[in-house]
Amino acid sequence: MRPNALTRAVSRLLPALAAVSIFAAAVPATAEAAQRRSVVKKPRVSKTYIAAKRRSVVIAAKPSFGQLAGLHAKRDELALRSSVALVIDQDTQEVLFSKNEQAVLPIASLTKLMTGLIISEAKLPMDEVITITQDDVDTEKNSSSRLRVGTSLTRGEALHLALMASENRAAHALGRTYPGGLQAFVPLMNAKAQAIGMKDTQYVEPTGLSSRNQSSAKDLATLVNVAYQDPQLREFTTSPSYDVAVGKRTLSFHNTNLLVRHSDWDIGLQKTGYITEAGQCLVMQARVAGRKLIMVFLDSAGKLSRIADAQRVRKWVETNAPASTSSTLMPPPTSTAAVSQASS
């Protein structure tokens, strides 16, 4: 090959060699850049953000027995939040309003009204001192109490706190210190219920913490009517507050029913109750539009909804149920069927 021909061949190869060189040099840089791009930096998350996210997590509430039975599906003209309601004229026994009144449900601390009735009728010395023990500590729902183990108070003070402030340890101590103990006290509760015509009612303990304490609105109206005849129960359930001297301290307790502090309400007897299985509950005897009424609200869906339901009923009675009414606005129930759920 002549030199000029060799020169021409080499000149043809130079561009290709240059391109290969440029590509080889570019590959490491490109790979390194790609590797850098593939690494995603995690954003820095503050502790405040984490806490806010935790607070935003909503845990589904355990349904009440009434919800499980579908009782909330029934609508009523007052749009009550309670799945069960009953309003009766105490003097004439007229049923002014009813909703699922035959349903048998857990009654929570409404139980304490029967506890109070048994204690009051037993005529035990109210100045006798009883002491809170470990046996009175709630192992059913692990609820708290301001009455520490070792606290001493009189039977009268314990009864007042159980009825007014719904104090669980006080109620349990009342049953435990009854002659014969709980083994005698609980059967007396059930015997009294049967004696006054509470056919759908069962008690297994004196506080209402057990969901096996069950009753119907109709039965509870009967209990309110009987308990109202006891002046001590009327006084203790309706006092707005109560102070108890415990050692060197004075503990102030308040009524669990906000309506007793409302001057426009004339309440003769009341009791509230709540556990998850029962929902929010309330029974009352109150004078409305010149009539003595017994109101029962069970399984209300909301912390203040039972109070709102009482307000709705009162407004409805004042507007639509004058004192001179001689016939029932709603016929009394004829069916004896009851809605009942197994207890856990």
Give a description of the structure:
38% of the residues lie in helices and 19% in strands. The chain has one domain: 3-Layer(aba) Sandwich (Beta-lactamase), CATH 3.40.710. It is built from ten helices and eleven strands. A five-stranded antiparallel β-sheet has the order 2-1-11-10-9, sandwiched between helices. A two-stranded antiparallel sheet has the order 3-6. By secondary structure, the chain is α+β, with helices and mostly antiparallel strands. Helix 5 (155-164) crosses helix 6 and helix 5 crosses helix 9 (231-238).
Characteristic terms for this protein:
about 20% strand, Beta-lactamase, 10 helices, alpha+beta, two-stranded antiparallel sheet, five-stranded antiparallel β-sheet, 11 strands, about 350 residues, disordered C terminus
**Helix/sheet category:** alpha+beta
Q: Estimate what percentage of residues fall within beta strands.
A: 15-25%
What is the general shape? globular
Number of helices: 10
CATH class: Alpha Beta
- CATH architecture designation: 3-Layer(aba) Sandwich
Percent helix, as a range, is 25-40%
Q: Looking at CATH, which topology would you report?
A: Beta-lactamase
- N-to-C order of helices and strands: HHHEEEHEEHHHEHHEEEEEH
The number of distinct structural domains comes to 1
